Every structure is written in C-alpha cells, then in structure tokens.
Amino acid sequence: MIYTIETIPAKLFFKIDNTGDYTLLSDDNSVKKEDLQKVWESILFYYQKNVQGKARDSQLDLDKKINSLESRLLCIKRIICLLKIERDHELERYLRSVGYQLTEQNFFDDLKKIESLSDMIKLKIEKQNSLLEKKKDNNTSKTTFEDVLLGYLTILGLGFKEANKITLLEYLALEKQVKNKVK
Q1: Residues of the domain holding 104
Q2: pLDDT (tens digit, 9 = 90+) per residue, 104-137?
C-alpha cells in the first residue's frame, strides 16, 4: 500500500517532512523510489498550498511592510541631507505630500523636526521586526505532534484518538476547527 493525501497518518507525514525519507510512504519494497517521490511531492504540495501558504503569506506581508518602512526612512533621510545642502522644490513637495510640514520661515528648523519625526519610522520597523521574529519562533517550536493533537482534542471536547492512526486530512480539519473556535 502507498499512502496518499487521503490516507497518510499525520504523524507519518510530519516524520517524512522532518527526515526527507519518503520511502516510508510504503512498506512494499517493489515500489520504485521515483513513484514514492512523486506521491510525496503531491502530498507536500497539497500541504504547502493549503496550510503553510497562509503562514508564509503573513510573513511575506510583514517583510513587505518592513522593506517599505526602511525604504521610506532612507528616502526621507537622504532628502533631508540634500535639502540641507541645497533647496529643491520637488523634494520639498515630496516631504509635504507624505505629511511633513515645511515652512519658508523655519525651513532648517522644520528639517530638524522632520529628521527627529522620521525616527518614529525606526520604531515601527523595530515593532514589525519583533512581530516577524515571533512568527518565526512560533513556527520553530519543539512541541510534539501528540501534544498538539491532544490539545486540539481537548479544546474541541472530543475523546482520545490514537496519534498513529489519525490521517493528515483529519488532523488539518481538527486544526481548522480549533482556529475557528478560538476566534
């Protein structure tokens, strides 16, 4: 028998995912490794598309925010440096368009104020980096499969299920129910 997405025990899936030994998909030694590899790739594709994709998208969103903030900060710092040397109406217009106030009477004082206000962007970057690190730490925790499964069953008020027999699809359904219940 070769396990498929419908029949693979969740515990076996995570074991293969951690070890890379997709030969565990079958006890039949006559099955070609290439066939097992194709089956494993289809199972893994399903998992990545339906489960990991959401977490990865969240991390990508945070990365985008961080990169955007860093670019904005760098741009503002460079504009301020240029404006201290020579006035440029286009650069001044840009600073005004992103919400900073520049006046003719207090031009250089306003630049100093903008420079100090732009440091708030650094704080936003640090906050986003902290959120990103937390997400990465949550993804690398060393909780066992059995711990997670029993936690899900307890939250949902379901009876005990043997960890070695629950399929990946059943496990993913439990995970989805827990997330919906926690919301």
Answers
A1: 57-141
A2: 999 999 999 999 988 888 888 898 888 878 776 6
- Amino acid identity, position 157: G
From residue 83, how far is each of 67, 70, 95 by CA, in Å?
24, 20, 11
Indicate whether 9 belongs to any domain.
Answer: no
First-to-final CA distance of the chain = 39
Measured CA to CA in angstroms, residue 127 lies from 58, 60, 65, 96 at distances of 15, 15, 11, 25
Q: Are 67 and 122 in contact (CB under 8 A)?
A: no
Domain count, the chain: 1
Residue 43 maps to a domain? no
Residues 50 and 175: their CA atoms lie apart, in Å, by 12
Amino acid at 152: Y
Taking only the tens place, the pLDDT of each residue in 56-81 is 567 777 778 888 889 989 999 999 99
Residue 87 falls within a domain, yes or no?
yes
The answer to whether the CB of 36 falls within 8 A of the CB of 22 is yes
Evaluate whether residue 45 is within a structural domain: no
Burial of residue 142 (CB within 10 Å: 0-12, 13-18, 19+) is exposed
